[in-house]
């Protein structure tokens, strides 16, 4: 007899040869399955080419603002006057990579280090100033930058300076939006290639590794939002709903715990399923993982079984629950029939 309510008949997946069942694979959650998954996990690994990059000395570029000091010659150091703000006496690098300096004229500075430019200015000034003592600093870095976008509190451009900028420092400066960020899918775009990094897993590494990924001019860092990083809990759980998560993993035990666990009055402990879809169901099989929650090892297995975004966790009803639902559907009907019969009998009695 058919009973109302949602129910998953997994026996069809195993025995039925229909087109529908051939697109689904039923997999038991066992210690062997978890061992295989653990062996193939690569979370937390940083690509070798990222670790191999080491920034060189900073190269001056267009739009950088330089401050050139010639000791004992304030007219050269601060031609606008000592009372002016320091930026007013800065030397802006032109779009063509040059700047103008008194006495020596045009100096090409783009693509050169601070020391290289300092030495050239001192050498050329020696024709006009005896033993010039020249110093050079960069007031504003504008020629090289990285762009940080996504679930950050302060997304936007960050300059590359004379101090190498690590990926973790850039992320820290931007500030992760903890409530909406997907920490497991940070993407670094460099030279036409994308590197997927698990930021949450990186936090488990040693500090020396955390700050060993350095950024360079043109890099883009994107931290996605976790609006699609969710799983759905349905069926005989105490509070069915979709839950989002931002960390690298959400295990089955935590997911069930977040909705109050299985409904003890109506759930079937042997019918805990994790339904995992595929992009092309015509070519790939969807997977249905089954956990026997009545097994003594069930809690341990659930703790070690990691869910994936868009998984559906479904807990089936117990047999008595399906029977009770059938009765609850029939009772209103039998009540109406009984009421009609009573009315008919009352009318018959009154006519006698």
TrEMBL record:
<feature type="domain" description="SLBB">
    <location>
        <begin position="230"/>
        <end position="315"/>
    </location>
</feature>
<dbReference type="GO" id="GO:0015159">
    <property type="term" value="F:polysaccharide transmembrane transporter activity"/>
</dbReference>
<feature type="domain" description="Outer-membrane lipoprotein Wza C-terminal">
    <location>
        <begin position="318"/>
        <end position="346"/>
    </location>
</feature>
<protein>
    <submittedName>
        <fullName>Periplasmic protein involved in polysaccharide export</fullName>
    </submittedName>
</protein>
<keyword id="KW-0626">Porin</keyword>
<dbReference type="Pfam" id="PF22461">
    <property type="entry name" value="SLBB_2"/>
</dbReference>
<dbReference type="InterPro" id="IPR003715">
    <property type="entry name" value="Poly_export_N"/>
</dbReference>
<dbReference type="Pfam" id="PF18412">
    <property type="entry name" value="Wza_C"/>
</dbReference>
<dbReference type="InterPro" id="IPR049712">
    <property type="entry name" value="Poly_export"/>
</dbReference>
<keyword id="KW-0472">Membrane</keyword>
<dbReference type="GO" id="GO:0046930">
    <property type="term" value="C:pore complex"/>
</dbReference>
<keyword id="KW-1134">Transmembrane beta strand</keyword>
<dbReference type="Pfam" id="PF02563">
    <property type="entry name" value="Poly_export"/>
</dbReference>
<dbReference type="InterPro" id="IPR040716">
    <property type="entry name" value="Wza_C"/>
</dbReference>
<keyword id="KW-0998">Cell outer membrane</keyword>
<dbReference type="GO" id="GO:0006811">
    <property type="term" value="P:monoatomic ion transport"/>
</dbReference>
<keyword id="KW-0732">Signal</keyword>
<dbReference type="InterPro" id="IPR054765">
    <property type="entry name" value="SLBB_dom"/>
</dbReference>
<dbReference type="GO" id="GO:0015288">
    <property type="term" value="F:porin activity"/>
</dbReference>
<dbReference type="GO" id="GO:0009279">
    <property type="term" value="C:cell outer membrane"/>
</dbReference>
<keyword id="KW-0449">Lipoprotein</keyword>
<feature type="domain" description="SLBB">
    <location>
        <begin position="144"/>
        <end position="222"/>
    </location>
</feature>
<keyword id="KW-0762">Sugar transport</keyword>
<keyword id="KW-0813">Transport</keyword>
<comment type="similarity">
    <text>Belongs to the BexD/CtrA/VexA family.</text>
</comment>
<keyword id="KW-0406">Ion transport</keyword>
<keyword id="KW-0625">Polysaccharide transport</keyword>
<keyword id="KW-0564">Palmitate</keyword>
<keyword id="KW-0812">Transmembrane</keyword>
<feature type="domain" description="Polysaccharide export protein N-terminal">
    <location>
        <begin position="54"/>
        <end position="138"/>
    </location>
</feature>
């Amino acid at each position: 007899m058919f009973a109302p309510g949602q129910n998953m008949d997994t026996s069809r997946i195993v025995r039925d040869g229909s087109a529908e069942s051939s697109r689904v694979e039923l997999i038991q959650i066992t210690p062997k399955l978890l061992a295989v998954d653990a062996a193939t996990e690569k979370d937390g690994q940083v690509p070798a080419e990222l670790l191999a990059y080491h920034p060189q000395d900073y190269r001056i570029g267009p739009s950088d603002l330089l401050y050139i000091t010639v000791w004992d010659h304030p007219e050269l150091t601060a031609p606008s006057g000592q009372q002016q703000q320091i930026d007013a006496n800065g030397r802006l690098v032109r779009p063509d990579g040059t700047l103008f300096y008194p006495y020596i004229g045009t100096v090409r500075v783009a693509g050169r280090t601070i020391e290289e430019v300092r030495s050239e200015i001192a050498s050329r000034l020696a024709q006009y100033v005896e033993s010039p003592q020249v110093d050079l600093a960069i007031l504003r870095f504008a020629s090289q930058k990285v762009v940080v976008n996504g679930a950050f509190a302060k997304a936007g451009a960050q300059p590359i300076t004379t101090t190498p900028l690590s990926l973790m420092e850039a992320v820290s400066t931007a500030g992760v939006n903890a409530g909406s960020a997907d920490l497991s899918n940070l993407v670094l775009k460099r030279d036409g290639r994308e590197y997927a990094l698990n930021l949450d897993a990186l936090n488990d590494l040693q500090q020396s590794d955390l700050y060993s990924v350095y950024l360079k001019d043109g890099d883009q860092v994107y931290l996605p939002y976790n609006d699609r990083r969710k799983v759905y809990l349905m069926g005989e759980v105490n509070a069915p709903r979709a839950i989002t998560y931002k960390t690298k993993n959400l295990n089955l035990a935590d997911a069930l715990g977040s909705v109050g666990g299985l409904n003890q009055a109506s759930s079937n402990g042997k019918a805990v399923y994790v339904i995992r879809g595929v992009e092309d169901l015509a070519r790939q099989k969807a997977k249905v993982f089954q956990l026997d929650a009545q097994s003594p090892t069930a809690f341990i297995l659930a703790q070690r079984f990691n869910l994936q975004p868009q998984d559906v966790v479904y807990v089936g009803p117990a047999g008595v629950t399906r029977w009770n639902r059938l009765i609850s559907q029939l009772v209103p009907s039998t009540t109406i029939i009984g009421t009609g019969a009573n009315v008919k009998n009352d009318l018959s009695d009154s006519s006698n």
